User: What shape does this take?
Amino acid sequence: MLPDGGYALVWLAVFLALGALSVPVAGTIFPRLDDRGAGLAIPVALTTIGVVGYWVGRLAFGLPALGLALLVLAGGSITAIRRDVVVDWRRYAEVATVFTAAFVFLVGVRAIDPSVVAIGGEKYLDYGLLNSLSRTETIPPEDPWFAGERVRYYYGGHLVAALLGQLTATPPAYTYNLALAGTYATLVSAVYGLAGAVAGDRGLSHVRAGLLAAFLVGIASNLATPVRVLAWLLPGGHSLADAFGIPLTRNGVETVAVGREAFSYWDASRVIPGTINEFPLFAFLNGDLHAHMLSLPFLLLAVGVLYEYWLTPVGQRWRRRLLAFVAMPILAGWLAVVNTWDFPTVLGLTWLTLALAPATPWSVLPRRMNDAIERRLERGSPALPLSAELVRPAVAGGLVGGVALAGVLFVLPFFTGAASTGGRTIALVADRSDPIRFLLVHGAFLLVACWYLASRVDPGPETIRDSTIALTTLLVALLWFHDALSFLFVVPVVAVGWYVIRRGRGGYETLLFVAGAGLVATVEVLYLSEQAGPGRLNTVFKTYVHVWVFWSLAAGVALASILEGRSWPAAAQAADERGRVRTGSISTTTATGNADTDCGSRSGSSEVSTESAVDTTAGADTATSTSRTATVLVLVLLAGLSLYGGLALADHVDGQDTHSLSLDVREEIRATAPDEAAAFDWLADREGQPRIVEAPTPPRHTYGSSDASGAPPPSRAVSGASTFSGLPTLAGWTHSADYHGEEPYWERVGHAETVFEGSDEERGAVLAQYDVRYVYVGPNERAWYELADLDGDPTLEVAAEFGEVRIYEVGARN
Assistant: This one.
């Protein structure tokens, strides 16, 4: 077995090698991106491993599926090289450098506190899934907390982690933290690459934009911590905060607003009551290997494919069809397996891209249908351009319906199996976000979005300005009346961003601002009602992470533009013109269905020629002063957003033994419950996946928490035998009721009680019904049940004993 650092080096080398192997494939998929797709090479590799592993794994999971996935990648690269596909190895070297820095950073973070614990997240769920997938021979895997039934949960990210563990010969106890570090590094490096590609296409520094975006997605926090720090440090800060209604406590508990010693990394993720407001640094610091985190690299790949569609010339109809109706259904379907919450998000982003791309959405239809729509629009009144604007989203919506159907069909076994649990309905939000708390969560990105969009708005004639003021006043009044002022911060971003794009004054970064704002507005109105969380808690939790990724990409490009002093009417317009001519994404031919896309470009060109003639010293001085001011403001913003990271990392290290670093998730359980840890290891060494019975975790001790009296469970290792071994138990955490139904779960809880308290005959019937091989008796079982005389049962024999822990084997005496 390798030392912990050895495993880390192997994983780093494998990730970078997989990326290098995929660079030619990425160059084939993304020929129009400024970096030829180098920034998305690692997500391409992971997606190939996941998709091939998912389908081949239905027959033979593990090394056969992994081997075929690598052959597919190698074959794709060889084909690309033979076709002389252009690749950018220099840009991949940049991405690899960013990946390495991010990977080493998170490995260091996890090495300080590597343990999987029940409290403070869903690490037990994640580790149980990983363990089960590491042992299974075919998929879908058996549910480790519901023996005999397949997993009814999205598990695609854990599938990839398990395959990487097999590729690197890494035990699951180490795979967990290394997969976490690899996911974080892939997220940060892919954001660096994709933001750099968008910036490069806009004529901006790809390094500056990439680093800014990488910082925002990997290090930055929301505004809760910097605002509370100001309240702590400024004289009269508390009074000022109270005057503006800024919350300085969480659930009545003091936060960093009273001093450094009161800081908790948890506070910034629970700002809006009844919701979870996670951001990536919190999530990876907390250490759950959860689906909403594992899906992010694949979500970025979907963004990249849609951006490639955006850049593809109008005349390349078949290529745009392949991107929209082949690549996107595959990615959408795969994302549903990884984290089903990503499925509607990707469909929404696809709809926005089709609706707002330079090529009209109907240009991908058969030529006869495209020409018919064009003729219908030409017969419309020129005074009513709104009709054409309404056709775009309507047609795009119909096309996205086809993408959704194809995505479902691509992973149909998942939708008819793991995703088939009922009890979910769409509901209206009753308690919307408080505006102040809303701004603490989203204010930094909204500030950048408004700053950026303001430089791109063409105010138009005085009549339009007057109408805009009147409509804005009416909107504010309506939102105030309906207690929905938070809409005031996102609806204008959607409206102005849409307008800017359609006027030819915004690129894909603007669309990402619109997408994030649209998601935030949606979850202020609707949520998915389900058992997994009260009210809209889970909907906001899973959606806000998508918003953070979209806005990090957009804000990285926007801040680079601001720092480079690119005002839209002059330099930025010229850069956009150069970029569009290079990609061939603008056409002036009515027959292609895109005559409406270049009106802004032509008007912009005249503005360029006019303003370029005005080149005075005073103008240059003003531009320099403005640039300096912008630089100071951006630095202040970035410094504020980094405060959480500094405090959280210091808190993470404080009190830990940094001389004894490890990546083994069993560290805590081995230190606090060595007998149980030894028993878990013994079970993990069994061949195959024999079924076990241990005490189901009662609701009062879910997440290892205390009961109503404040008493903790006898052992924090609730459902620990199944979680740490990967062997399926009769019934595990009460979370199983969310996935398999309340009635079946509680029926199994009753059967577990029969095993521990019933007669020999009753016990034998249950053990035979579920084909149980081992009965686990540890501290929880002894505390929660009046144990029958298991030693006297003729069908049971003690197979292993570790202190107070006994493991009985069923049928051993026969």
